[in-house]
Write a structure and sequence with these properties.
alpha/beta; 7-stranded mixed β-sheet; 3-stranded mixed β-sheet; 10 strands
Amino acid sequence: MSRAFRPQYGFRPVTLPAPLSMPDQLLDRPAHDPAARAGGPIRSHSRLARAAVLLVPPPFAIGFGYMTGTVLAADGIFTPADLLLAALSGFAVFWMAMSVVSSFFGLFWRAPAKANAAAPGLRIAILLPMYGEDPEATLAPSVALLDSLRAPGHAHRFSLHVLSDTRNGRAALDEAAMVAKLTASRPDLAITYRHRLKNTDYKQGNVRDWITRQGAAYDAALILDADSVMGRGTVLTLADTLVADPGCALAQTLPITGAGESRWQRMQSFASRVYGGPHGRGFAIWTGSDGNFLGHNAMVRMRAFATNCGLPHLPGPRPMGGVIQSHDFVEAALLRRAGWGVRIIPEAADSHEEAPSNLLAHIKRDARWCQGNLQHMRLLKVPGLHWVSRLHFLSGAMAYIGSVLLLVMLVLWAMADQGRTGQTTDRLEIWLAATVIFLLFAPRAFGVLDYLRRVGVAKGRRLGFVKLLLIETVVAVLSAPVMMLHHAKIIFRALTGADTGWPQHMSGRIPLKALLKFHAGETGLGVLLSGMIALGILSVWFLPVAAGLLLAVPVSAWVSEPAGDLAVVPLVPER
């Protein structure tokens, strides 16, 4: 065995390195990093897929908007509200069609030939931010990863850095004690711990603080979340990608949601493992080196990240101003603006994260994400950004703004129904409904086909797979109206200055009293809509919305229960 490929026992700088500058980026002018590869990153996207994603949705959306207008004008009257409804319908269908086309191309993805890094390899810091999580459960996967990376077969050197932002002093002492215990029992592993007294700028500030103090001693950093679990092969694939592609500054995996303990987590895991494959791979195909950053389970080139990803505070009061909360999209956009490539690596597949354990925790996390994605709308005009980065910003915001548009569309449809004079357009309405159903469920169908082809379902597990597929679909349909209302509420609160901050994780079963209080608004609205449908005031097309709102409490209670009755779908074929 050559010296370069013997086991590496980690990297510890002999002396403290000089501080590494991570200046605030200027958002009012273009920027370019002289250290970036001349001519930009190596092109890695499919031109055909990119053309299809961009060119197929517009005519589809225009046609849908036109047919919607035809239905609304059937009585000979076409009001401004009708025009707005037709336009919003076409706009919503545009984003749905884009998702369908992207997922379709994901069916044809094939893993590229493996890139092997040449010696001497990279000095890589594994960064594990913590914010009040259980230290033993959080540290175990990262320590196991570091241990696995000691095995021969590569030339990289790794060390683990626990970066605590925990606010509770007793909990921080427990973390430090756990790390001390680990380092005493495993002196062969390079593990360090640091606790910040002030969690300035949340996670991005935590990572930035470490980079400026110690980052100069490393070539790259593997950024994790507290719930991240990654395999040796996947980490080495990311490292080898940075070596093989000198124009790439960030290599992102597609994290898979863990099976979890609750029914909600089990269904989120099913959706990630079954539906998520074609969507993620299709996104990687057409974005290529213009990809995105999810904030964790990714590897960054240290000096490129430090030079180009220091985020300034946005002017104005929080939450729309101040610290940039969804920092990951912005960091990817700034790297791309500076001339570096950002790539999503689907073949780095052993990458996992955990979902919130219940619907309330999911909504609370969405509140933080929503605020951050709304901030991105302020950054759409930053000079020098790649147009794909602007599209990432817009699509991220639309994941939440779309709920408000849907709510407005439902109100407009209700108003239009009241003004109808009896002209029949039933056939056209059925076609419109069928189109929406197709666009909503096509990515799911692609995911099922892809999963059956790549993984398959063992004979004895087919009934459990079908059961979970049906249950997940029903819960998704019922919870969609609940999410719509909460997204609208979150956006309204953000625009009126209410800041959700950065709450710590919540888990476990939710008391019935808390569920009744949390879901009181949607339950009351569900009762109202059900009554209006029964009286003929509203069309039966509103029945799925009414049912989802009316059943918010029982559905939310059921999904927070233990998942013992729901199967875990495997990630690889079973023998």
